[in-house]
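Write out this protein's structure.
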Amino acid sequence: MNLVCLDMEGVLTPEIWIEFSRVSGIPELCRTTRDEPDYGKLMRWRIGILKEHGLGLKEIREVIRRIDPLPGAKEFLDALRRETQAIILSDTFEEFAMPLMEKLGFPTIFCNSLVVAESGEITGFSMRVSDSKRSTVRALQSVGFETIAVGDSYNDLGMIRASKAGVLFRSTEAIKASNPDLPACDDYATLLDEIRKAL
């Protein structure tokens, strides 16, 4: 049985941290996994910046509530789910993801959790498992699924490489250049066609 594993940010939704960076006026927070392959290092750096500016979960959630899925994302996801099973594998956090999942029709998502103090300060994060996207793909394969993975960033390459097929979607030129064997596209119609080829 096929199972399509989709990254969330950059594939179905805007990058939360880029949106928060824009709204908060803190340009340093626009760094994502497209820029920094080490997710733990990136998150510890982000938490330090939030602390420095006295910002917490409340302020980030206020921005997230105003974020909509990327244009065409829900229609793509609906079309995909009519043809096969799909799951979102994201390094985001459940505290961030739920408003966006509602706007996407509540697809299944596996993500991580934040550690939040009573004051609302984000003090840490808890990853579901190490190397969560690739580990999850391997676990799904161990119970009989054939996976097809879609992502845009460095932290998606593990699940893409571990799958029977994978697609880079709206990725950077650097990532595409260093992975020339992977199909790459920038629109949902082409993405759906690439997935269909692998089904």
